[in-house]
Backbone:
C-alpha cells in the first residue's frame, strides 16, 4: 500500500521486507525493517526501539546530586555527556552557578568526548562500511606510500616500509583466525569501491587511531579523577587545582596540565593530517553515493553547547550552534526554547506507552513513562518471535519527540547545517573549504557521507576549541583563580521546596536533554530525551516518519541480502548499537541470518 | 608452566549495574575492595559499560583477572573459570559477553596492537536475570561473589601474589550512590520499574519467574 507522509515521503510497504535487528542493551536495543522493490530500492522503513528503558523510573526518589552517576551508566559510549547534562539540569533547578574554571574544565571533558567519539566512530565503527581491510592485503606498499604523501603531505608515517609492516601485521592477524574485528564483512560486495592502496592506508590509520584514542581518554582521567565513568559534581568539577603543589593527591598540577596540553596537540595533528584527509580520500571514491540524506535537508535541531562563559547558555555564547530548521528553509534558523511546553513534545501514538488522548504530546517536564505493550493487527510471527512489526499501530519503545510538531534530525550534520545556515564563521569556512576541495555542491551535505564529513569537520573544530579552553584555564589560574566548585547550595536545606530544571548538551550523536523536577530534596520526575530518541523516532500521529526511517528511503541496495547500504546510513548517525541482521523472504521466512557489528 | 610473577595485575569487573545480574563483575570488584588487602601491584577497576576505554588499562597489565556475567548456557548461578587463549576464543565463538562493544572485541583489539596481557583469567557467572532494568543481583548470582573472590585469590596466589583479608582503598570503583547497598536501598518497586516485563522482549524474565 502506498501512503504519503506529511513530511514528504512516499511509503510503499509491498515488496520484500528486510529486518535489521540490532542487539545492544546500552542505550536501547534497536531494530529496523525495510521493504525493497524489484530493483532493490528501499520503499518503506520502520525503526523500532525494542527495549524498555526505564531510567526515568529508577531515578524517582533519589538524591538529585547523585543523578549523574546513574545517567552515566545509560550508555556504553557517551557516559560523560549524560553526567554533564544531569548536573546542568540539577543546577538549573536549584539556581546554582558554577565558577569559570569549572566551565573550562567541563568544556574540555565534553570536547574530549566529542573528539574521542568521532575518531573512534569513523575508524572503528563506520570505516568498515566503506573500507575493505581484506582488500588491503593486496595493496602495493610503495603505491600506498605515494597515495599517503599525496593525500596528506605533512603526515610523517608514510614510508613504503611502514605500510609493508602494517600489511604483514594485518596478514598475521587475519591468518591467526582472530578476525574478530573484521568479521561479518561483505568483503566481496560490489558496494565497496576503494582500490587496495586506499584500503591499506585507511586500515593503517585505524591502528593509529587506536593509539591516539588511548591518549584522549587520559583527559577524562585527569579532570574526572577516574576513567571509565569519571566523576562529576553538582556546582562545579570534583578536582582541586594546585599548580605549585606536587604532593596533593588528585589535585591538578602543572605536570598534569602539561600532559593535557600535549594530548590536545596530538589530537590537532591527527585530525589535520589523518582524519580529514582520509574523509576526503575515501569520500572521493564514493562521490556518487549520495543516499541517506533523509530529514537533514528539511528539519534539523541542535540545542547548542560549549558555553564560552559559565552559566550563560544564550545562543551567541555557544561555540556549537543552537537552532532549528524546518521545511527545508535554510534562510531562517529558529531559536529553540527547551522550557517552552509548546516546542518540544513527545508523542506515543506509535510507541509502547500510553497517556492522554490520541495525538497528545507532552513536554518532558510533564513527561509520563507508563508502558503499554501491544502489537498491531498485521504483525507477523508470534509474540515471542516477531518477524514483522505492524507500523500502523504501536511499534517502538522509543517515544516520538517533535519540535513544534516536526520530526527532526539531530547530530553533527544537523549542527553543521544549522551553523552553516546561521553563518557561524568557523563552521562556514570549514564546510566551504571541504566542498571546494572535493568539488561538491552544498546539496551533497544532505547525505550519509555528509553526516560522516560533518563529524570529521566537527572533530577538527573541537580540537581548536579544546586548545582555547585549555589556554583560558591556564590564564585564569595564573590570575589567581583556582576555584573549581560552588558549594553554597550543596545542602538540601538551602533548596526551594519544589523546583524544576533542564540541562542540555550536544552529545557526539546529537542534542541531549534531561528535564528534572525536585521536591523535598528528592527527584520527583526525571525525563531524558536522548539523540537516538530523535533520530530513531517512530512515526507520530500525523504519520511523519523519523530521521532513521527517512534516511533509508529510496536507497538502492546492490544485494538486498547483504545490507551494507542500510548499515552505512544507520552507522552514519553513530547510534549506540550493534546489529544482528535477519533477511526475510516475502513470506517472512528467514533467508539468511547475519550478525553485524 | 608457571613462569615469572607478573609485575602488574589488573582485576577488572565489567557489566552494567543497572541491569540485574549484568552487574556481577562490577559487584565482585566492589566486594573485593571491601574484604581483601591487595598489594600495590594489583589494580582494581570498575570497567562498567565501557569498551575501548579499557584499552590503556589492559596495555599496562601483565596479567588480567576479569569478572563478568557470562552466558555459558549452564545452570544459572554456575561459576566458570577460563584461562588465556580460551578467554577470547570462547568469547568470540559463543558471543558470551553481554556488553555493547563486546569485551572480546576489546581483547582482539588489544592483541592487534600488542597490548594484550600475557596472562588472562575470566571468572564468569551464569546469570539468572538480565531483563530487569533498575534491578539488582539475584540471590543465586549474589551468593557466588564470595566464591568468585576465592577463585581470584587462588589465581593471584598461583601467580605468586599474596592476598590478605582486609580492605583496599581504591578510587576506581562505582560512585557511592551506585554502591550495591545504596543502589538496592533506593530502588523502586517491581511494579513501578516495569519489571513485570512483556513476552516479546523479556522472554528470559518470563522463564525465570515461571
Residues:
Amino acid at each position: 500500500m502506498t501512503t504519503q507522509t506529511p513530511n514528504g515521503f512516499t511509503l510503499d510497504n509491498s515488496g520484500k521486507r528486510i529486518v535489521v535487528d540490532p542487539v545492544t542493551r546500552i542505550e536501547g536495543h534497536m531494530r529496523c525493517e525495510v521493504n525493497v522493490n524489484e530493483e532493490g530500492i528501499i520503499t518503506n522503513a520502520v525503526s523500532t526501539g525494542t527495549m524498555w528503558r526505564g531510567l526515568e523510573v529508577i531515578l524517582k526518589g533519589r538524591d538529585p546530586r547523585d543523578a549523574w552517576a546513574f545517567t552515566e551508566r545509560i550508555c556504553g559510549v557517551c557516559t560523560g555527556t549524560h553526567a554533564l547534562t544531569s548536573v546542568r539540569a540539577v543546577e538549573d533547578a536549584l539556581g546554582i552557578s558554577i565558577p569559570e574554571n569549572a566551565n573550562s574544565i567541563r568544556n574540555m571533558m565534553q570536547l574530549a568526548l566529542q573528539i574521542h567519539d568521532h575518531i573512534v566512530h569513523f575508524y572503528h565503527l563506520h570505516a568498515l562500511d566503506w573500507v575493505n581491510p581484506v582488500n588491503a592485503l593486496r595493496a602495493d606498499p610503495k603505491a600506498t606510500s605515494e597515495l599517503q604523501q599525496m593525500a596528506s603531505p605533512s603526515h610523517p608515517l608514510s614510508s613504503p616500509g611502514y605500510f609493508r609492516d602494517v600489511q604483514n601485521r594485518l596478514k598475521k592477524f587475519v591468518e591467526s583466525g582472530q578476525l574478530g574485528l573484521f568479521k561479518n564483512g561483505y568483503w566481496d560486495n560490489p558496494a565497496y569501491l576503494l582500490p587496495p592502496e586506499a584500503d591499506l592506508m585507511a586500515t593503517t590509520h585505524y591502528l593509529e587511531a587506536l593509539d591516539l584514542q588511548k591518549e584522549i581518554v587520559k583527559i577524562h582521567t585527569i579532570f574526572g579523577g577516574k576513567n571509565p565513568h569519571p566523576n562529576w559534581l553538582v556546582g562545579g568539577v570534583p578536582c582541586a587545582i594546585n599548580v605549585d603543589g606536587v604532593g596533593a593527591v588528585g589535585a591538578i598540577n602543572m605536570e598534569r596540565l602539561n600532559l593535557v596540553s600535549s594530548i590536545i596537540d596530538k589530537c590537532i595533528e591527527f585530525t589535520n593530517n589523518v582524519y580529514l584527509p582520509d574523509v576526503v580520500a575515501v569520500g572521493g571514491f564514493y562521490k556518487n553515493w549520495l543516499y541517506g540524506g533523509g530529514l537533514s535537508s528539511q528539519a534539523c535541531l541542535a540545542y547548542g553547547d560549549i558555553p564560552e562563559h559559565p552559566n550563560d547558555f544564550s545562543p551567541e555564547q555557544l561555540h556549537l550552534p543552537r537552532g532549528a530548521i524546518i521545511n527545508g528553509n535554510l534562510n531562517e534558523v529558529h531559536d529553540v526554547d527547551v522550557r517552552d511546553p509548546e516546542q518540544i513534545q513527545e508523542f506515543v501514538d506509535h510507541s509502547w506507552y500510553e497517556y492522554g488522548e490520541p495525538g497528545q504530546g507532552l513536554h518532558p517536564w510533564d513527561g509520563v513513562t507508563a508502558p503499554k505493550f501491544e502489537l498491531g493487527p498485521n504483525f507477523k510471527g508470534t509474540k515471542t518471535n516477531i518477524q514483522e512489526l505492524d507500523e500502523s499501530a504501536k511499534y517502538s519503545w522509543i517515544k516520538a519527540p517533535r519540535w513544534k510538531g516536526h520530526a527532526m534530525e539531530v547530530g553533527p550534520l544537523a549542527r553543521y547545517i544549522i551553523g552553516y545556515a546561521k553563518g557561524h564563521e568557523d563552521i562556514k569556512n570549514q564546510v566551504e573549504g571541504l566542498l571546494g576541495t572535493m568539488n561538491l555542491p552544498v546539496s551533497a551535505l544532505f547525505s550519509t557521507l555528509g553526516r560522516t564529513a560533518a563529524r570529521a569537520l566537527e572533530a577538527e573544530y573541537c580540537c581548536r576549541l579544546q586548545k582555547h579552553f585549555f589556554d583560558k584555564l591556564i590564564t585564569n589560574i595564573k590570575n589567581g583563580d583556582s576555584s573549581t566548585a560552588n558549594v553554597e547550595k550543596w545542602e538540601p536545606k538551602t533548596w526551594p521546596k519544589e523546583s524544576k530544571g533542564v540541562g542540555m548538551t550536544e552529545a557526539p550523536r546529537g542534542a541531549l536533554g534531561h528535564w528534572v523536577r525536585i521536591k523535598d530534596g528528592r527527584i520527583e520526575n526525571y525525563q531524558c530525551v536522548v539523540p537516538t530518541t530523535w533520530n530513531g523516532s517512530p512515526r507520530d500521529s500525523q504519520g511523519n516518519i523519523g530521521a532513521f526511517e527517512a534516511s533509508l528511503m529510496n536507497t538502492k541496495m546492490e544485494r538486498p541480502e547483504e545490507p551494507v547500504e542500510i548499515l552505512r546510513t544507520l552507522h552514519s548517525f553513530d547510534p549506540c548499537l550493534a546489529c544482528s541482521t535477519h533477511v526475510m523472504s516475502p513470506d517472512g521466512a528467514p533467508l539468511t541470518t547475519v550478525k553485524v557489528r | 608452566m608457571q613462569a615469572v610473577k607478573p609485575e602488574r595485575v589488573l582485576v577488572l569487573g565489567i557489566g552494567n549495574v543497572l541491569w540485574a545480574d549484568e552487574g556481577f563483575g562490577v559487584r565482585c570488584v566492589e566486594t573485593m575492595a571491601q574484604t581483601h588487602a591487595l598489594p600495590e601491584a594489583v589494580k582494581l577497576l570498575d570497567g562498567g559499560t565501557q569498551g575501548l576505554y579499557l584499552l590503556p588499562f589492559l596495555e599496562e597489565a601483565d596479567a588480567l583477572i576479569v569478572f563478568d556475567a557470562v552466558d555459558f548456557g549452564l545452570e544459572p548461578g554456575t561459576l566458570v573459570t577460563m584461562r588465556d587463549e580460551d578467554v577470547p576464543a570462547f568469547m568470540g565463538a559463543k558471543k558470551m559477553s553481554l556488553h555493547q562493544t563486546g569485551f572480546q572485541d576489546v581483547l582482539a583489539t588489544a592483541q592487534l596492537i600488542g597490548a594484550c596481557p600475557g596472562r588472562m583469567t575470566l571468572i564468569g557467572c551464569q546469570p539468572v536475570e538480565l531483563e530487569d532494568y533498575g534491578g539488582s543481583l539475584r540471590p543465586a548470582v549474589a551468593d557466588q561473589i564470595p566464591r568468585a573472590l576465592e577463585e581470584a585469590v587462588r589465581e593471584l596466589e598461583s601467580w605468586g601474589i599474596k592476598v590478605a583479608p582486609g580492605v583496599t582503598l581504591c578510587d576506581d570503583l562505582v560512585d557511592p550512590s551506585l554502591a550495591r547497598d545504596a543502589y538496592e536501598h533506593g530502588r523502586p518497586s517491581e511494579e513501578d520499574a516495569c519489571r513485570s516485563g512483556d513476552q516479546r522482549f523479556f522472554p528470559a524474565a518470563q522463564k525465570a519467574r515461571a
The longest strand of chain B covers residues 42-48. Confidence is low (pLDDT under 50) at residues 91-100, 194-210 of chain B. The longest helix of chain B spans residues 145-158. The domain at 9-167 of chain B is CATH 3.40.50.1450 (Rossmann fold).
